[in-house]
Design goal:
By secondary structure, the chain is an alpha/beta fold. It is built from 17 helices and 12 strands. It is globular and about 75 Å long. The chain binds pyridoxal-5'-phosphate (PLP).
Length: 424
């Protein structure tokens, strides 16, 4: 049975057990009883899939994984301790020493640092390109490239990457495309339907939706052909797991090669597992994903329209604004809305931006996005204050830039708070 988004968000993966519990049970356990030694041996040899130890899997986490895989139209998913670990495990589940990644330059700060400073220490080189010019991805590909990586809506100017064009390049070169869809969620776009091979979410943002915890998830389409010899990690016997060749020895489980390897190699041995409590909490959030995203998008559109005609505002970026540079691509990619993020410039520059933030009453001043509550930050005086104005400008952070993550409050109250703070 193939259900639509809101139905999947409420039902997929849930099994009513002998207790009859309607909500998904929270399994707070470290380990699971084997039925007998044969059962135990089968689990360890992958002849049978099942629970062994919660670092590897947990029944609550399993429901979350099935649900998000279904929301994205993927074959399988793996939930992890954070969006950050989901990104790291994706890279090291494909690339090893000597391999290259081609990535968008406007990545989330933590991801950018991982790619720029940490991956090179492991012998993985990242070439950064402008996501608005897909040809740059193609030009940066070499015979060592094993992964293309981008976000769909990027920070801080909310530029929209044309993943239709980027995935064509990935296919032409037999390289997987991984996209971080945290800002879009499956409500706005299902990247696998646009040719992406892997979708990553920070569950900490709109998916969980309430600013209550940290988690991440990786969804695999199950369609990428890992048996191409250039993917060494899939074609050579894996010394860390029974000398399995993940692209060759899995039989019926072959379409799950990517997620199985991530579970059995990085997760099993590096250990960034999601806690069952957080998996349970994210399931509660995801139940209302469609309702919340509808309101996030509707409110953000109204805020962008309002700011655009406000005398104290010098510029606004929102992918849904008629004259936004991202509007054409957004209209092709997003069917139901343009997301919850709005950025704008306050007339009067850095001082004015800081004054605006200091005068907000309802809207929370903090470094997060995707909460049900409206959030604001002034990057020039906070997250990016250690950079020179020149370096800030290179990253698109102008001194007047204010970033809003629009929540699901009543729109009149959001607009009133913005107006009184702009007045101050
Ligand atoms: C927050 C975020 C991350 C990192 O996720 P954590 O759950 O905080 O580790 C990665 N990418 C994007 C786009 C994010 O917004």
């Amino acid at each position: 049975m193939s259900y639509k988004l809101n139905t999947i968000a409420l039902h997929t993966g849930a099994v009513i057990d002998e207790t009859g519990s309607r909500s998904v049970p929270l399994h707070r356990t470290t380990a699971y009883m084997f039925k007998n030694t044969e059962h135990a041996a089968n689990l360890f040899a992958l002849k049978e899939l099942g629970n062994i130890y919660t670092r590897l899997q947990n029944p609550t986490q399993d429901v979350l994984e099935q649900r998000v895989a279904a929301l994205e139209g993927g074959a399988a998913a793996l939930a992890l301790a954070s969006g950050t670990s989901a990104i790291f495990y994706t890279v090291i589940n494909i690339c090893g020493k000597g391999d290259e990644v081609v990535a968008a330059v406007n990545l989330y700060g933590g991801t950018f640092t991982m790619f720029k400073n940490i991956l090179p220490e492991l012998g993985i080189t990242v070439k950064f390109v402008d996501p608005l010019d897909p040809v740059e991805f193609e030009n940066a590909i070499s015979d060592k490239t094993r992964l293309l990586y981008t976000e769909i809506i990027g920070n801080p100017t909310l530029d929209v990457a044309d993943i239709d064009a980027i995935s064509e390049i990935a296919k032409r070169n037999s390289i997987p495309l991984a996209v971080d869809s945290t800002f879009t969620t499956p409500y706005m776009i299902r990247p696998l339907e646009h040719g992406a091979d892997i979708v990553i979410h920070s569950l900490s943002k709109w998916m969980g939706g309430h600013g209550t915890g940290i988690g991440g998830i990786v969804v695999d389409s199950g369609k990428f052909d890992w048996s191409n010899e250039k993917f060494r990690l899939y074609n050579e016997p894996d010394g860390s797991y029974h000398n399995i060749r993940f692209a060759r020895d899995l039989g019926d489980l072959n379409p799950l090669a990517f997620i199985l390897r991530m579970r059995l190699v990085p997760l099993r041995n590096l250990g960034a597992c999601i806690s069952p409590d957080n998996a349970w909490m994210f399931l509660q959030g995801i139940e209302t994903l469609g309702l919340r995203m509808e309101r996030h998008c509707e409110n953000a559109m109204k805020v962008a329209d309002h700011l655009e005609s406000h005398p104290k505002v010098s510029w606004v970026r929102y992918p849904g604004l008629k004259n936004d540079p991202g509007k054409t691509v957004s209209d092709r990619l997003f069917k139901k809305g343009y997301g919850g993020m709005v950025v704008f410039g306050v007339k009067g520059g850095k001082e004015a931006g800081a004054t605006f933030i200091n005068n907000l009453k309802l809207i929370s001043h903090l470094a997060n996005v995707g909460d049900a509550k409206t959030l604001a930050i002034h990057p020039a005086s906070t997250t990016h204050s250690q950079l020179t104005e020149k370096d800030q400008a290179a990253g698109g952070i102008t001194p007047d830039l204010v970033r809003l993550s629009i929540g699901i409050e009543d729109i009149d109250d959001i607009l009133s708070d913005i107006d009184q703070a702009l007045q101050a």
